[in-house]
Design brief:
This protein is mostly helical. The protein is built from 5 helices and no strands. It has one domain (2-88): Tetratricopeptide repeat domain (Serine Threonine Protein Phosphatase 5, Tetratricopeptide repeat, Alpha Horseshoe).
Length: 89
């Protein structure tokens, strides 16, 4: 539910309103499912970056870094790298 609400706010170009919902999704994502957790963290990272909060985005990328080695989908690895570059710019 939180993820869907967050995505809806993003679709309405309201990233700041999406943050609380996507944050709840990250908190609920189990470390037993690293791919799902990584996906949730990257969604939140992208959103807080769109809000202009570079420091928070970097903190989230730091949290996600350990998950990268545990997932095989290259799409998530590429997304992580793209977000890392965007936040560093």
């Amino acid at each position: 539910m939180d993820a869907g609400t967050g995505v809806a706010w993003l679709a309405c170009d309201q990233p700041s309103r999406a943050v609380p919902f996507l944050s709840s999704r990250v908190k609920a994502a189990s470390t037993d499912y690293p791919r799902d957790r990584l996906h949730a963290v990257l969604d939140l990272t992208d959103t807080v970056h769109k809000c202009g909060d570079r420091d928070h985005a970097q903190e989230l990328l730091d949290q996600a870094e350990w998950l990268i080695g545990t997932v095989s989908p290259q799409r998530l690895v590429h997304r992580y790298k793209a977000l890392s570059s965007a936040v560093a710019a």
